[in-house]
């Protein structure tokens, strides 16, 4: 099983590069792709950059050039539900492009075709189950003190649910309400997951998205996101990635 691992920003995945054996680096367009193995598992890793277009382009290269068998995305998200706290982890069972709105085309014949109708993508049950097991193991290891580079008081709750994706950094009450009203099932919001899920669905490949909550998508989101990105996420995502790959 060859895995295509994507992160939007260097802090979210790049530390993992140190663990890749037989590392080979290739450039396609503006992106570098790092391929090799970790614990004998084949891997190709890439930083997509922010947003749905960047994520879709990266996923397509991973599939068409590297023939990966699954796509995995690890990164940060803003929570849009009051019970999700900073540091909690969300494993997607559904990914929804919350900024797509075809409602004005209601009744238009081609919108009825399955290809156009839905911008919500379900995660294959098997890959979803494997991701949940990996995240549960991560939390168990945390509690055992197995990760000296991660804060000893970090004790996240794990949620499984819908993740919303849009080309917007949400940082206001109005922005959150807009997502909550259209998609009450969405737990958190980010900018790439559902684009990768759409490419995975096109090619009938499993797709795993795991997000750590960095902010509450409110007026404090900028500061909270920056703090989590620069102080916390790197070691958390490396350990999550290794468990998801294993
Ligand atoms: N990624 C992390 N926090 C986010 C937010 N508030 N909006 C969009 N993407 C995010």
From TrEMBL:
**Which pathway does it operate in?**
Amino-acid biosynthesis; L-methionine biosynthesis via salvage pathway; S-methyl-5-thio-alpha-D-ribose 1-phosphate from S-methyl-5'-thioadenosine (hydrolase route): step 1/2
The EC code for this enzyme is 3.2.2.9
Recite the UniProt keywords alphabetically: Amino-acid biosynthesis, Hydrolase, Methionine biosynthesis
Q: Does the keyword Hydrolase apply?
A: yes
**InterPro entries assigned to the protein according to its UniProt record, in alphabetical order:** MTA_SAH_Nsdase (IPR010049), Nucleoside_phosphorylase_d (IPR000845), Nucleoside_phosphorylase_sf (IPR035994)
Name the domain of life. Answer: Bacteria
- Gene Ontology MF terms: adenosylhomocysteine nucleosidase activity; methylthioadenosine nucleosidase activity
Q: What class of enzyme is it?
A: hydrolase
GO terms for cellular component: cytosol
NCBIfam families in alphabetical order: MTA_SAH-Nsdase, PRK05584.1
Name under which the protein is recorded: adenosylhomocysteine nucleosidase
Q: Which organism is it from?
A: Sunxiuqinia dokdonensis
């Amino acid at each position: 099983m060859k895995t295509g691992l994507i992160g939007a920003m260097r802090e979210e995945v790049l530390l993992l590069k140190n663990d890749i054996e037989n590392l080979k680096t290739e450039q396609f367009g503006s992106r570098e792709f790092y391929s090799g193995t970790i614990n004998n598992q084949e891997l190709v890793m890439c930083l997509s950059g922010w947003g749905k277009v960047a994520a879709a382009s990266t996923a397509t290269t991973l599939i068409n050039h590297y023939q990966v068998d699954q796509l995995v995305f690890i990164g940060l998200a803003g929570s849009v539900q009051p019970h999700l706290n900073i540091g909690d982890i969300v494993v997607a069972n559904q990914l929804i492009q919350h900024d797509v709105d075809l409602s004005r085309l209601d009744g238009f014949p081609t919108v009825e075709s399955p290809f156009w109708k839905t911008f919500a993508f379900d995660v294959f049950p098997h890959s979803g189950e494997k991701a949940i097991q990996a995240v549960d193991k991560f939390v168990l290891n945390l509690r055992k003190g197995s990760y000296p580079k991660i804060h000893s008081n970090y004790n996240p709750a794990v949620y499984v649910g819908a993740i919303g994706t849009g080309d917007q950094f949400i940082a206001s009450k109005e922005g959150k309400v807009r997502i909550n009203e259209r998609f009450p099932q969405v737990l958190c919001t980010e900018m790439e997951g559902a684009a990768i899920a759409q490419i995975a669905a096109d090619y009938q490949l499993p797709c795993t998205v795991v997000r750590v909550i960095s902010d509450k998508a409110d007026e404090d989101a900028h500061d909270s996101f920056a703090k989590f990105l620069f102080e916390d996420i790197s070691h958390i995502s490396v350990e999550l990635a290794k468990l998801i790959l294993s």
